[in-house]
Write a structure and sequence with these properties.
This is UTP--glucose-1-phosphate uridylyltransferase. Keywords: Nucleotidyltransferase, Transferase. α3 runs antiparallel to α4 and α10 packs across α11. The radius of gyration is 21 Å and the shape is globular. The chain is α/β, with parallel strands linked by helices. The longest helix has 15 residues. The chain contains 11 helices and 13 strands.
Length: about 325
């Protein structure tokens, strides 16, 4: 078992960076935080908090910015609405409304200057202290049927250092991600990261293993982030700090391991993937799926010009 002191502590805190402006979803995000855009009938950010809670984390710090007050309101009590629902006897909706305020102990700190993901994580230093912690990005929704974070926490506890989540992507898409050079370990599905490159050109990518928005980090990352100069895009990149940690021994905050994830993941980072995420999750819902999927089949048949498959009924 790893002897790194930070590896011996249980991960109890999670950081959710939520200060981005959401410009890809304008004009919807002109006055509404992108994290509050609904995925079926819950805002995306609620799925992320639920994932952290399911992994045993009950202390959440959101890194916010201007125009993000709706996040705080969503995870707060809504006394007037609760009273109205109680008066109407609508106890099912009352329970749904109350649930978000009872999920976890949620705290907030403002990032101030938009200096990138690395800077957002650095804003969490005082709250996190000197213990390992999780970072969850709201653009990636992990299906609750394929838990990822508990595996990452367990790997960190056993091996020490930091842990990132990796997926295999088409080599032509590596420029969209931070990519990892890795070497195998004695454990299936777990690799040791030897190098990281943020959004490389296709010909420069060390592999087709891409980092997605789940991390378990040691507090040594804060020390590195303070010294990390702006990188790609003029921002302080978390990938650059992890690259430094990957080259360090356990006694100095390293190494970095990767957990290969092959489960269901919903990318809500762009419009098309956001819509696909809604359709997939809606189809899997017991209360919505059967009727919605039947309509969807008819709609697709109509668009494909196949009246035998339902165009006449659409």
């Amino acid at each position: 078992m790893a002897q790194n002191g930070s590896a011996q502590r249980t991960v109890t805190k999670a950081v959710i960076p939520a200060a981005g402006r959401g410009t890809r979803f304008l004009p919807a995000t002109k006055a509404t935080p992108k994290e509050m855009l609904p995925v079926v009938d819950k805002p995306a950010i609620e799925y992320v908090v639920e994932e952290a809670v399911a992994a045993g984390i009950d202390d959440i710090l959101m890194i916010t910015g201007r125009g993000k007050r709706a996040l705080e309101d969503h995870f707060d009590r809504a006394y007037e609405l609760e009273h109205e629902l109680r008066q109407k006897g609508d106890m099912d909706k009352l329970a749904e409304v109350q649930r978000s305020s009872q999920l976890a102990d949620v705290h907030y700190v403002r990032q101030g200057d938009p200096k990138g993901l690395g800077h957002a994580v650095l804003c969490a230093e005082k709250h996190v202290g000197r213990q390992p912690f999780a970072v969850l990005l709201g653009d990636d929704l992990i299906d609750e049927r394929d838990p990822l974070l508990p595996t990452m926490i367990e790997v960190q506890k056993r091996k020490g250092g930091s842990v990132v989540a990796l997926i295999e992507v088409d080599p032509s898409q590596v420029y969209l991600y931070g990519c990892a050079a890795v070497e195998p370990t004695d454990e299936e599905g777990v690799v040791r990261v030897t190098d990281l490159v943020e959004k490389p050109d296709v010909e420069d990518a060390p592999s087709n293993l891409a980092i997605i928005g789940r991390y378990v980090l040691t507090p040594e990352v804060f020390d590195i982030l303070r010294e990390t100069p702006p990188g790609r895009g003029g921002e302080i990149q978390l990938t650059d700090a992890l690259r430094t940690l990957a080259r360090r021994p356990e006694s100095d905050g390293g190494p970095v391991h990767g957990v290969l994830f092959r489960g269901r993941r919903y990318d809500t980072g762009d419009k098309a993937d956001y819509l696909r995420a809604i359709v997939r999750l809606a189809c899997d819902r017991e209360d919505l799926g059967p009727s919605f999927l039947a309509w969807l089949k008819d709609f697709v048949a109509e668009r494909s010009g196949d009246p035998a498959n339902g165009a006449d009924r659409a």
